[in-house]
Write a structure and sequence with these properties.
By secondary structure, the protein is of the alpha+beta class. The chain is about 30% helix and about 25% strand. Helix 4 packs parallel to helix 12. The protein is globular, with a radius of gyration of 20 Å.
């Protein structure tokens, strides 16, 4: 059963949620202005449609939605690590007149299962289109040591290394992801389907006041016997996950909810979360993927069919997680180019 977009976060989550400093919500609309670089039937798409509603570019069938307030994250002590992650999405350097901490403001991303493990991200900020094109054409840009190559799809240039790359939509909006994810997003633009396909209950999470990032996932399609369920039994029976976070001391803070179809499953999940440091399968999973880290204490509160939790991780743990994410992208690129 898929979670209803009308379902409210649990009261338990509100009780243990992070204390945010600001009171104004984060918009999920982007910046306006700039010339469109996208052609459909020889005509340029209105740039305002691409710049002001980046979520509408993401394809349908999303399993996991993520929002990142890059400007806020760059200002934190972990700013350099965030910059490395952003550069994985847009592998550009000084020769492209591109500096992530200066030029990127927001990222909207989705994970899919179209032809495998696919992803697509809309990156917003300010981009020097001419400098980027010159540097890529001169093959001065690479991702994980693999030069970017240029191809055409839907009347637009795609720059890829292996199976991952990006394309410029406007001077303020770029599309990144693996090739399947990017092509499905470009198909939406080409077919004029720029209405939001991402469920509202996912995008609403990004409006949480002063959240540096937000993640919302549909777990209803996860097989009960899947590896994730075996390694993380607190997910068994969950149909949705919501997580928000910020980069305030001690490093990175998470607050989230897991939603279930029945009270018994929620009770079991809460118990598993409370004893997570003693769950050997989960710790073995972390070691297997190269994350020999200690899980910080988890505060758990249950309310009916929802389980709320908060985690405060120190900077070293946060950096380890970011490095692993960068390693995954690098391995994906290098693995595809060796085929």
């Amino acid at each position: 059963m898929r979670i209803s977009p009308r379902r409210r976060p649990a009261a338990a989550f509100a009780a243990v949620a992070l204390s945010f400093a600001a009171a104004s919500p984060l918009p999920l609309s982007g910046c306006g202005g700039g010339d469109s670089l996208i052609l459909v039937a020889g005509q340029r798409v209105d740039s305002a449609r691409l710049d002001t509603d980046p979520v509408s570019i993401l394809p349908s069938g999303i399993l996991m939605f993520a929002y990142m307030d890059a400007t806020t994250m760059f200002r934190s002590n972990l700013g350099p690590d965030v910059s490395v992650m952003v550069q994985q999405l847009l592998p550009l350097g000084p020769e492209s007149n591109f500096v992530p901490t200066r030029d990127v403001t927001r990222v909207f991303a989705g994970a899919y299962a179209m032809q495998g493990a696919d992803f697509c991200a809309v990156v917003q900020g300010s981009f020097d289109v001419d400098a980027i094109r010159r540097s890529v054409d001169a093959r001065k840009v690479s991702l994980a040591g693999v030069p970017l190559s240029k191809s055409r799809y839907a009347d637009n240039d795609l720059y890829t290394a292996g199976n991952i790359g990006f394309t410029l939509l406007t001077a303020h909006t770029a599309l990144s992801g693996n090739e399947t994810g990017m092509r499905r997003a470009l198909d939406r633009i080409r077919n004029g389907k720029l209405t939001r396909a991402v469920p509202e209950w996912m995008t609403n999470l990004g409006r949480t006041p002063n959240a540096s990032f937000a993640i919302a996932g549909d777990l209803s399609s996860q097989s009960p016997g899947g590896s994730a369920m075996q390694a993380m039994p607190f997910l068994a029976g969950a149909n949705a996950v919501r997580i928000i976070g910020n980069f305030q001391p001690p490093g990175v803070n998470f607050a989230g909810t897991l939603s279930f179809d029945d009270d018994a499953s929620a009770e079991t999940s809460a118990a598993a979360l409370q004893s997570i440091n003693s769950i050997s399968p989960f710790m073995s999973l972390l070691a297997t993927i190269g994350l020999g880290i200690t899980i910080p204490p988890i505060n758990v509160a249950k309310k009916e069919k929802d389980v709320g939790f908060t985690i405060a991780a120190d900077e070293s743990t946060a950096r380890a997680l970011m490095r692993k994410a960068s390693d995954v992208v690098r391995a994906a690129v290098q693995g595809d180019t060796r085929r």
